Amino acid sequence: MGDQNKKYYFADLEKMSSDEHMNEDVQDIACPRLVLEYNKHMGYVDKLDMLKSIYELDRKSKKWWLRIFWYLLDISLVNAYIIFKNRNTTTKSGKCMTLKDFKLAVCLGLIGADENIPKKGRISSVQQNTFKANVPQEIRYDSCAHMPIHGSSRRCAYCSSTSSPHRTKWICSR
């Protein structure tokens, strides 16, 4: 089995045994190291293609670069899964995480699903005030009489952070 076409390489030669099926003789022949390494690891390419095809991310697109992006994302997720599987052989239940669970965990991690997401619907009637005083602490707590005085119409510093801002003519004397 394998590729029967001629290949040309510039590489160091190593010894490799050849099988003669007719005479059942085994002879040592010179073979490039590159070919030996390829034959040794060529099954990993098939396994990568198989794992990639299980839950493929390929989407139809009119833009050619999106197809390349989906392909590269798919390959990188499968490679990350293989590395994860080699480093973490078992989970708490004693079983290894599947590729589907791994991709789901990556997606949930990227969108931040473990964080508190605000619920949809009506806003609660009790809202926390997000007003922050922008008056320096020295003036705010200086024990002088801060009296309200009548001034020009301005936005209220307290109410402007709520959903219904108001305007006021009263300001602090300091």
Automatic annotation (TrEMBL):
Highest taxon of the lineage: Eukaryota
Sequence intervals crossing the membrane: 64-84
Source species: Acanthoscelides obtectus (Bean weevil)
Protein name, per record: PiggyBac transposable element-derived protein domain-containing protein
Pfam family name, one: DDE_Tnp_1_7
Domain PiggyBac transposable element-derived protein: 20-81
Keyword list, A-Z: Membrane, Transmembrane, Transmembrane helix
InterPro entries hit by this protein: PGBD
Database matches in PANTHER family: DDE_TNP_1_7 DOMAIN-CONTAINING PROTEIN (PTHR47272), PIGGYBAC TRANSPOSABLE ELEMENT-DERIVED PROTEIN 3-LIKE (PTHR47272:SF2)
